[in-house]
Amino acid sequence: MIDLYTAATPNGFKISIALEEMGLEYRVHKLDFSTSEQKQPEFIAINPNGRIPAIIDRDNEDFVVFESGAILLYLAEKTGKFLPADPKKRSQVIQWLMFQMSGVGPMMGQANVFFRYFPEKIPAAIDRYQKEGRRLFEVMNTQLATNQYLAGDEYTIADIATWPWVRIHEWSGINMEGLTHLQRWLDELALRPACQKGIITPPPVEMSDEERAKQIQKMVTK
């Protein structure tokens, strides 16, 4: 049994998708950002950084893993799925996983904040992060022109990590115009049952855009 500590965010959805794809039994613990539950001592004891997602593997002496990329690697190694054994292919998967962790996620996350939620509109910041997000999309589009998936012909944890972010490109104000190969990949993964289940685990919080903006403004201006 895997205990998953998460919320309805792209980083959280990475892990729920992976658990569904790998067929692992898991139990969801949804953290409430509106009450800063992720910063409470009970969760800090699990993840000192106070961020979701995190897991506890009850079948491995209650082993704790935090950081979404580290969790994906751990689960892939645990199950032998979605991470090739061949050293070169394995390295390619990890390279594209790191591309998401260091580039796609942070840049889109900042685009989200400055485009949607920051109390002051700063055009230079919005432009910077949207342009960098688009550039990263173009890198993926080029890769997908000759590969079915990000790391080659196999669906891997690199795709699992990246898809929950790319699918919300409109929320970041990043357009997909002309990126036909990236759009093809986006649409194909959307048909996978595990992806469909993963992005509603946990279910999104029902709130207006104004309420969501206030909540995130509180988080980003602390």
TrEMBL record:
<dbReference type="Pfam" id="PF00043">
    <property type="entry name" value="GST_C"/>
</dbReference>
<dbReference type="InterPro" id="IPR004045">
    <property type="entry name" value="Glutathione_S-Trfase_N"/>
</dbReference>
<comment type="similarity">
    <text>Belongs to the GST superfamily.</text>
</comment>
<dbReference type="InterPro" id="IPR040079">
    <property type="entry name" value="Glutathione_S-Trfase"/>
</dbReference>
<dbReference type="Pfam" id="PF02798">
    <property type="entry name" value="GST_N"/>
</dbReference>
<dbReference type="InterPro" id="IPR004046">
    <property type="entry name" value="GST_C"/>
</dbReference>
<dbReference type="InterPro" id="IPR036249">
    <property type="entry name" value="Thioredoxin-like_sf"/>
</dbReference>
<dbReference type="InterPro" id="IPR010987">
    <property type="entry name" value="Glutathione-S-Trfase_C-like"/>
</dbReference>
<feature type="domain" description="GST N-terminal">
    <location>
        <begin position="1"/>
        <end position="83"/>
    </location>
</feature>
<feature type="domain" description="GST C-terminal">
    <location>
        <begin position="86"/>
        <end position="216"/>
    </location>
</feature>
<dbReference type="InterPro" id="IPR036282">
    <property type="entry name" value="Glutathione-S-Trfase_C_sf"/>
</dbReference>
<protein>
    <submittedName>
        <fullName>Glutathione binding-like protein</fullName>
    </submittedName>
</protein>
